[in-house]
Amino acid sequence: MSFEYPKHVRFSCERCALCCRDTTDRVRSILLLTIEIDRISKKTLTELDEFAEKIEGFEPYIYRMRKTENGKCVFLKGNSCSIYQIRPLICRFYPLQLKNMGNGRYVFAHTDECSGIGTGPQLKRDFFEKIFSEFIELMRRNSQAERQRKNAVTVESARASRNTITNSARN
Ligand code: SF4
Description:
Blueprint: E1 2-4, E2 10-11, E3 31-32, H1 34-44, H2 48-51, E4 52-54, E5 63-65, E6 76-77, E7 80-81, H3 89-93, E8 96-102, E9 105-110, E10 117-122, H4 125-170
């Protein structure tokens, strides 16, 4: 696997929280992986339906973060993220995005929408290497979490169908 990255990009987060809410120009979707919904639900003791809604066609992302009526992420408190330590990959990468170009080739891009772009230190290769490794590791663990979820569903359906058969036999 290999990646390319933009040279000469400077960035420092100004904590404006623009990336955590819709703007007049942009409706934002914070997409979530299986491993992320499991982790957020467990750590915040929140039912999945309270903070995420199911989506299709964006695999491996299978949920989207819910927003408040005024378009803010439900976990945004003031200008701070209340799940910062376990925030989703998409939030950790912002204002960068990683595009899958196929054949194991990935390309980092950035958005100028973020007011932190152009400020702070230049992002060097070691920074991109670090976040790329995090991405690969998270995807590996996400595949494991997806398999566990599917197995749990299969066991649950087998149990339900066994119960149905037993109940029918009793009637
Ligand atoms: S929009 Fe940019 S500067 Fe503002 S909080 Fe998000 S990452 Fe930080």
